[in-house]
Amino acid sequence: MRKEKISSAVIRRLPRYYRFVDNLYYDGVTRISSQALGKALGFTASQIRQDLSRFGEFGQQGYGYSVEKLRNEIAGILGMYRGHKCIIVGAGNLGRALIRNFTFDKYGFTLVAAFDLDPEVLGTEIQGVPVYHVGELEEWVTRIRPDVAVLTTPRSVASRTANRLVAAGVQGIWNFTNIELKLDHPEKVVVENVHFADSLLSLSYYIAEDERPDPRAPEDKD
């Protein structure tokens, strides 16, 4: 893999590429051209080739891309084979729903523990994931060294909990608390925010304006 600075726009497109070729793989498709890939995703063929060429040469002129190879290569670029460990902090309704329904292992993450304050869930297991008291967080994180914390706490304690995680050595936070975290050392952690309302409000706009966005259109870069 080439060691160069990759723009966030390219990185944001990679999961979309992976999702599409993963579906092709399970549908039994063996190869695809950059033209067909671009047409399906709303990009130009040159954009597809340019994005992928930043990480290596995966296609063959006159043949296109092997779907299985491209799927595996993108998975490797995205770190899906690195054996990441993650924890959930906040085993309320959303936390439990993620534990029960989101296939972390499919994307290369092993969910190893959850943390909460509720005595009804402490000491139990949810889908085989043990639930510990949040007071044990620092000691547990320092000892087990999870890579990512899924943050599903109440908003009132989100930033404080995030700072505890960062101080203990967590490298990434998947933030479902619907607030922008106030971090003491933001340079020490990568935060990915999930705002459920954003897509719903976008849907509201299109309905209110009676517009129909092109589902294949690429996302704006600005």
Description:
The protein contains 8 helices and 10 strands. With 222 residues, the chain is of the alpha/beta class. It has 2 domains: 70 residues, Orthogonal Bundle (Arc Repressor Mutant, subunit A); 116 residues, NAD(P)-binding Rossmann-like Domain (Rossmann fold). The strands form 2 sheets. The protein has a 7-stranded mixed sheet. Strands 1-3-2 form a 3-stranded antiparallel sheet. Helix 6 packs parallel to helix 7. The longest helix is centred in the first third of the chain and has 19 residues. The radius of gyration is 20 Å and the shape is globular. The mean pLDDT is 91.
Assigned CATH architecture of the largest domain: 3-Layer(aba) Sandwich
Shape: globular
Beta content: 15-25%
- The order of strands across the largest sheet is 6-7-5-4-8-9-10
Low-confidence stretches: none
The CATH topology assignment of the largest domain is: Rossmann fold
